[in-house]
Design goal:
By secondary structure, this protein is of the alpha/beta class. It is 22% helix and 35% strand. It contains five helices and twelve strands. Helix 4 (91-101) runs parallel beside helix 5.
Length: 229
């Protein structure tokens, strides 16, 4: 008998660029939509457990989006958390704080890149760091991309991946950086925040890839090839 239990996760759908993807939610998972991310959830046929935001970007989607939101506000007001427009937290990081407070350690962010605001994309990269520094593991997900943080640790990728993998130092310097199972390898090297040495590496489909950093913080960006489905 297999007693393996999948760790519950929190999925957050933000208001950046969004290509519809299949988001699988298991028992115990928690779904938060941030502002116009609510409309993306509707596209997928998903009702968020919580909808967070000041709803400025929802208003930009037009009256139908606002009507849907108001219907939920009337029938289930506890499902909506309205934020002040003037605030220190972005809608996304507020959702992350809620997820962490509920005990979720794995947090997946969709709709967290692109859109009309580069500053929000960069803020969401910082949000990955916030998750890491508060005991969780965060992933920015798109239909063909993923961003994650490695800090004083080793990250392994199974065989079968194709596409590009880039590694950037978010700390001033990242030491003892080792890249294995990739087109270009590195053994105990040093990456710096002012030179993109780690850009555009490539998976080797029949090898397990590995990214290690002994001391420092890396941003790992993956652009998956078509063979990954």
């Amino acid at each position: 008998m297999n007693n393996y239990k999948i760790e519950p996760k929190c999925v957050i759908i933000s208001a950046g660029s969004f290509v519809p993807v299949d988001i699988k939610l298991n028992e115990g998972d928690y779904l938060i939509a941030c502002d116009a991310g609510f409309a993306y959830a509707e596209q997928l046929g998903l009702l968020p457990d919580l909808i967070v935001g000041d709803f400025d970007s929802t208003a930009e989607l037009g009256p139908q989006a606002l009507r849907s939101l108001e219907e939920i506000a009337e029938s289930d007001p506890d499902r909506i958390l309205r934020l002040d427009v003037r605030k220190d937290d972005t809608d996304t990081i507020k959702a992350v704080k809620i997820a962490l407070s509920k005990g979720y350690k794995k947090i997946y962010l969709y709709g967290a890149l692109g859109g009309s605001r580069f500053d929000h994309s960069f803020a969401n990269v910082q949000t990955l760091l916030y998750i890491k520094h508060n005991g969780g593991t965060g992933y920015i997900m798109e239909h063909d991309k993923m961003l994650m943080i490695a800090e004083n640790e080793t990250i392994k990728f199974n065989r079968g991946n194709t596409g590009y993998l880039s590694v950037f130092s978010l700390s001033e310097k990242s030491y003892e950086v080792t890249l294995k199972g990739l087109m270009y390898t590195l053994d105990n090297g040093t990456l710096t925040s002012d030179f993109p040495l780690g850009v555009s590496n490539e998976f080797i489909i029949d090898e397990e890839a590995e990214v290690s950093v002994g001391r420092g913080t890396l941003l790992i960006g993956i652009h998956f090839g078509e063979d990954n489905g």
